[in-house]
Amino acid sequence: MPTDSSVRVRPLTAGPGVMAAMVAVVRRDLQASFRQRQDLLNPLLFFIMVVTLFPLGVSPEVSFLQQAGTGILWVAALLATLLSLDHLYRHDFDDGTLEQLMLQPQPLYLLILAKVLAHWLVTGLPLVLLAPLLGVMVHLEGNSIGILCLTLLIGTPVLSLIGSIGAALTLGLRSGGVLLSLLIIPLYIPVLIFGTGTVAAAAEGAPVSAYIALMGAFLVLALTLAPFASAAALRISMSNS
């Protein structure tokens, strides 16, 4: 991991106010992500491989793929997000950047929100952009693909926000990846259920506004509570390290 000053959190002191600090954190994390291309590409390659190999291992029939395609894409997106969560705080913890972040005068939960935003921009957003191509691959119809992209656009930030709590709790543990999966996957299940249910309802011609509203409520709830929980978990993990 590069440890030169260009990827440290020093820009936080360059501008006054919380917004300048959040922008600096997002910029710094994006720069660090593009310097570590293997961490950037692994979730995307995993997402593509799971969706591509599933029809080969189960059934290539069009009717089956149309019925199961949404679930395949959502489960692959969930696992790809989970694969990238271990790096959310790990590199910053290893090179001491996380300690600098916690000593900043700005509220820690807002800086964590900025880090989660950067994580979603390099992990969740590419999954949303790849979804139409992979949706065609599993023979989803045009309307279903549009709803799928909408549910992923709403749901993947929730996955990142919830995942940040688990990543903070397991920071510094040797088997943190396994424990992270055990902690986070049960919390992902409601998002998975409503994400796939929305697309299934759209495919049947049923109204989907209630599903979208519930997923929006999940996003608002995660935006409101997850940064505070992640900040508390980080303080606990740092105090025990």
TrEMBL record:
The keyword Lipoprotein belongs to this UniProt entry's keyword annotation: no
GO biological process: cytochrome c biosynthetic process; cytochrome complex assembly
Topology in membrane: Multi-pass membrane protein
Main location: membrane
GO cellular component, one term: plasma membrane
GO molecular function, one term: heme transmembrane transporter activity
Pfam families tied to this protein: CcmB
Location relative to the cell: Cell inner membrane
Cytoplasm keyword on record: no
Positions of transmembrane segments: 40-58, 64-88, 108-133, 145-171, 178-202, 208-234
Keywords: Cell inner membrane, Cell membrane, Cytochrome c-type biogenesis, Membrane, Transmembrane, Transmembrane helix, Transport
Domain of life: Bacteria
PANTHER family per UniProt: CYTOCHROME C BIOGENESIS B-RELATED, HEME EXPORTER PROTEIN B
Family: Belongs to the CcmB/CycW/HelB family.
Function noted in UniProt: Required for the export of heme to the periplasm for the biogenesis of c-type cytochromes.
Protein name from the UniProt record: Heme exporter protein B
Organism per entry: Marinobacter profundi
Gene encoding the protein: ccmB
